[in-house]
Amino acid sequence: DDDGHLHLSSGITRSDSILNLLYASPVWTLAKQLIGKDKTSRPQRGQVALVPPQLHLAARKLDSKIPGNAWHIDGHSTTKHSPFTLLVGITLSAANVPNSGNFCVFPGSHHKILPLVREQALAGQD
Q1: What is the pLDDT of residues 104-118, one digit of tens each?
Q2: How far is 35 from 32, CA to CA, in rounded Å?
Q3: 15-to-10, 19, 25, 45 alpha-carbon distances in Å
Q4: Residue 65 falls in which region: left (phi positive, over 0), alpha (psi -120 to 50) or beta
Q5: Residue 4 pLDDT > 60, yes or no?
Q6: Strand positions, DSSP E, the chain
Q7: Displacement of CA 101 from its chain's centroid (Å)
């Protein structure tokens, strides 16, 4: 559109091309091994999040801080906890410069986040 946003057909998330990124690769087998074969359900759609690499931006330094409001937990809203156990991300293009992609992991962050989520759950807050 005029704002530079790409709008996709709603059927693409259920297409074989998208689902086979998971099922026609070793990723689905690995996910079942990680979670447990009998504890997984076969997803019927994928999420397509297109953000082209922004090569004109300087890469964030590996030791730089990300502002407290510049991150989120996928599937976790302000009113409800995540409805899924595992999120699989499959990149379609290379991020050739450190910290220039669309996915970031904060090693060890689960040690800080889990007690907060557990506290909310015990308090009856979904």
Answers
A1: 777 788 888 888 878
A2: 5
A3: 10, 6, 16, 8
A4: beta
A5: no
A6: none
A7: 12
